[in-house]
Amino acid sequence: MRRFGPPPPDGGPRFQRREPTGPRSGRPTLPEPPTEMLTTPSGVRLEGLITGVGDPVTVFAHGLAGDISGTRPLGSAVTGRRVFFHFRGHGRSDAPVGPWSFGDLAADLRAVADLTGATRALGVSLGSAALGRLLSDTPGRFERVVFYLPAPLDGHRPAAAEARLERLLAAVESGEAAPIAAAVEPELPPSVRNTPAGWSFLRQRVEQLQRDGLAPELTTLWHEPAVADESSLRAFQGRALVLGCVGDEVHPVAWAERLASLLPGAELHVYDRPAVLWNNRRELRDRISAFLNG
Q: Which of 12, 108, 120, 261 could pair with 58 in a Cys bridge, judged by C-beta atoms 3.0 to 4.6 Å apart?
């Protein structure tokens, strides 16, 4: 198993950068809060961050090549404890020998939820597929769930999604800030690019990917469906909110509509343009918190 860019023993920068190579915001990015390593029953150690106090406890599962900082805005108004973590192959989490499956990601999610006593969950893209797999195996595990920009459950992804991952992995392997920034930039809507907020986002993402790398085993996840029998989701016993948007070539709205039709009584909301976290941040945050806090 080869992981792109293992961190050096002294914890210092992973790569020597030749200036200028990356986005410049004019100021350093804010330091990230300290995380902890959680040891799961499978032996895989996962990096986690717990914020807030009291109950209920909500676990947040990020998307492909995502990180804790990318899911934190989704929980900023959610009450109780909020548990953020990195799936295997992301952040400082372990990257065991592959191939991997969504069953493995569901096991990561279940382990974090069990260790922290989470009764609610939110999954983003890849995280939503892992959440779907968990619910297909254990319909009663969570009381409330949110699927944000759900990924396909049948194992078939758009060519654009595959190309984006291949480009990102190649950029991370190069160790250079400029190609990583170019691979990440499509996550930003055109209106945000070349703005202070856009540069700050790019700088943070580049630094995180250079520091922590990404595991190439991520490409093996789609060798089989996330959920073999989608009808098993009809046994879900809690409440569900599904959030999709039109115009996202990586997360077609049809996937959100399909998922909502499978989950009994699920609420479906479709945004009218992509990059929801940038274009509709406050409304998105309020919708998620109203559902989970209710």
A: 120
**Model confidence over 199-226: pLDDT tens digits?**
999 999 999 999 999 999 999 999 899 9
pLDDT in tens, 224-241: 999 999 999 999 999 999
Spatial separation of the C-alpha atoms in residues 155 and 145, rounded to whole Å: 21
C-alpha span between 99 and 88 (Å, rounded): 12
Listed in sequence order, the residues at least 6 apart from 12 whose beta carbon sits closer than 8 Å to its beta carbon are: none
Residue (of 61, 114, 115) closest to 88 by Cα position: 61
Cα Dmax for the chain = 55
d(CA 159, CA 65): 17
| Residues 6 or more apart whose Cβ sits within 8 Å of residue 274 | 189, 245, 246, 247, 248
Tell me the pTM: 0.89
